[in-house]
Amino acid sequence: MAEGITFSVEGFEHVDGRLVAITRQRARGQSEALLQAEALARRLPGAAAFALRVNRDGSEVRTILGAFGDVPDDIIDGLAGG
User: Fold this and answer.
1) Are the CB atoms for 34 and 56 separated by under 8 Å?
2) Which burial class, exposed, middle or buried, applies to 81 when counting CB atoms under 10 A from its CB (0-12, 13-18, 19+)?
3) Which top-rank group of organisms is this from (predicted)?
């Protein structure tokens, strides 16, 4: 059973030839996270929106809601299902 869900957005920049998360911000919901990620990707090489569910046992499940622009391969793989 889930304790709660939080939403966040990460922005990515090229650093030494690889994409690195340089900014992280919270969002109030899924729609807001997607809108913020899309807007952030207009200023940075890329951005992604996430949902984080924390279960009662303390385990966490991070879901990629969407990615815009240039993001790390593991995020693209997550969107494709693995």
Assistant:
1) no
2) exposed
3) Bacteria
SS3 of residue 80 by DSSP: coil
Question: Which DSSP state fits 73?
Answer: H
Task: Please state the φ and ψ torsions of residue 77, each to the nearest 5 degrees.
Answer: -60, -40
- Residue 11 Cα distances to 1, 5, 25, 56, 69, angstroms: 30, 20, 9, 29, 10
Give, in degrees to the nearest 5, the angle at Cα 8 between 55 and 66: 100
Total structural domains in the chain? 1
Amino acid occupying residue 24:
R
CA distance 65 to 78: 9
